[in-house]
Write a structure and sequence with these properties.
alpha+beta, four-stranded antiparallel β-sheet, 4 strands, 51% helix
Length: 114
């Protein structure tokens, strides 16, 4: 399923799975770890996935536009599509809409004004 280019059906399945996972899994882990869901605890969740699950390399910095987190991986465009929709659903749980950019090897998340 994750090899080569996706047809619309496969892409829709990846997006649906990512949205479902992003709207439930982070909430369980974040509230168990910190007792609350906010921007900082969700960023910590992304750091934890990098550190312990090795899903991507995570880096963070501040620039004039806001806080920027970069997730770099070797798993191709399908994984970037999954991550974008997972992160979107995750932040929707707290009413935040980060700016997201992706390539076949990375996802860049920007939290404006942070």
């Amino acid at each position: 399923m994750f090899r080569g280019l996706l047809d619309a059906t496969d892409s829709d399945k990846i997006i649906e799975l990512a949205k479902t996972a992003g709207s439930s899994i982070p909430q369980a882990f974040v509230t168990a770890k910190s007792g609350k869901m906010d921007v900082d605890s969700l960023l910590d969740h992304l750091r934890t996935l990098s550190l312990y699950a090795h899903l991507y390399e995570y880096s963070e910095n501040l620039n004039p536009q806001g806080q920027v987190a970069t997730l770099v991986h070797d798993f191709g465009l399908n994984w970037s599509i999954f991550l974008v929709h997972y992160i979107t659903a995750m932040f929707e749980q707290i009413g935040v809409s980060p700016k997201l950019e992706m390539s076949d090897r990375s996802v860049i998340l920007t939290l404006l004004g942070k």
